[in-house]
Design goal:
alpha+beta; 5-stranded antiparallel sheet; 12 strands; 21% strand; elongated
Length: 379
């Protein structure tokens, strides 16, 4: 490997990791392959993102290509269908077919670039792809074996570097989200972009979205069923993507009846995006379903003290400190039934007073409750 090749390969990894310097790198690749132009094409339909970086091409040609002609480019399909790392040429499209096409005769032949090309996918996932394309010049519309050999040397490094870039962004998001300590088993962490597209969710957040309740995932977007809550949430998230406007906020999704609302806290969240990282996170959603904590606490008490579900539920409600009648009402049972349950709770936990019960339950590491008062101590 020559020193020039080593320098270009180093530049490939530097550009991918820093997400910068691609224009100079593409020019160096084109020169090394003795071709007129090199282009980096990135397309992500989920992010409504498409980019073509080609420093030596006419900007007007690139504009017209992006606005209209890309959908008529016969060579694009050959590249899109090829495995990552495989080099394609005009032979894969069909030279005669291409030269007689509407795309070539009405557009490309006037672009200043030749018809001959080499291309390779660098990344392909879920309909999104990144590819590098080399073009011959209009005046010397041919690609020889030395050009193919040079491109073959560089392509594996381009593939590897783009993979590293993609993984680094994912790790950056997961690492930042992982620092969040919600303090609640019922709170999930969900990261979205400005259009509510899902970028990352921790295990609890993913479970909440897949359950399909008040907040769920649909078409790779985070969706809230209640229209008023959905509008407020989308507004807060969108503001997080606008410099100087996004400070986050809170949204409560009412579930009706006696069920506690789902609480969503919106926090501004930024991870650098760029040419190879088109999806830009703007907000972190802390989705708290208090009923998840409630059920987890009930199960914990059942295992620890051998309580029935009804007994554990009443014990937790008694910790609110507003009396047996109020606790019974929240549990949907009569005061007499509550008295019977509470007597059994005292027996199983080895206490005689409500204050003692609270201390025992707090010692069992049941989180998120106010011990309340010492009144109404007897069953």
């Amino acid at each position: 490997m020559s020193e020039d090749d080593a320098a270009i390969i180093d530049g490939i990894y530097d550009a991918a990791i820093a997400n910068d310097g691609w224009s100079d790198l593409l020019c160096a690749i084109a020169d090394r392959c003795a071709l007129e132009n090199a282009a980096l094409v990135v397309h992500d339909p989920h992010a409504d993102f498409s980019s073509v970086l080609t420093p030596r091409a006419d900007p007007a040609v690139i504009r017209d290509y992006g606005e209209y002609w890309w959908q008529h480019d016969l060579t694009a399909q050959a590249t899109a269908d090829a495995p990552v790392g495989r080099i394609t040429s005009l032979d894969d499209t069909g030279r005669d077919r291409f030269l007689h096409s509407h795309f070539y005769n009405d557009f490309w032949r006037h672009s200043g670039l030749g018809a001959e090309r080499l291309a390779s996918n660098l990344l392909a996932r879920d309909g999104a792809f990144a590819s590098v394309v080399l073009h011959a010049s209009r005046l010397r519309d041919e690609i020889g074996e030395p050009s193919l050999q040079a491109f073959s040397l560089l392509t594996p490094h381009l593939v590897r570097a783009v993979s590293i870039s993609s993984r680094l962004q994912r790790l950056e998001i997961e690492n930042a989200a992982g620092w969040v300590r919600t303090g609640s088993k019922g709170t999930g962490v969900v990261v979205v972009d400005a259009k509510m597209r899902l970028i990352h969710a921790d295990p609890t957040g993913e479970e909440q979205l897949q359950t399909g309740g008040e907040i769920r995932e649909a078409g790779n977007r985070v969706v809230v069923e209640d229209s008023a809550s959905a509008f407020k949430l989308a507004s807060l998230v969108q503001a997080c993507g606008t410099k100087g406007l996004g400070n986050g906020g809170k949204v409560a999704i009412d579930r009706g009846g006696m069920r506690k609302p789902v609480q969503i806290e919106v926090l501004p969240f930024r991870v650098h995006a760029g040419l190879l990282r088109p999806v830009s996170p703007v907000a972190m959603l802390l989705v708290n379903d208090p009923e998840r904590d409630h059920e987890a606490n009930i199960e914990r008490l059942r295992r620890r003290f051998g309580l029935t579900r009804a007994e554990a539920a009443l014990a937790l409600e008694m910790m609110a400190g507003d009396g047996r009648a109020a606790a019974a009402a929240r549990c949907g049972i009569s005061v007499n039934t509550a008295r019977t349950h509470l007597t059994r709770v005292f027996e199983k936990t080895g206490v005689n007073r409500q204050a003692e019960l609270i201390r025992v339950l707090m010692a069992s590491e049941t989180p998120g409750f106010d011990p309340g008062s010492d009144d109404d101590n007897q069953p």
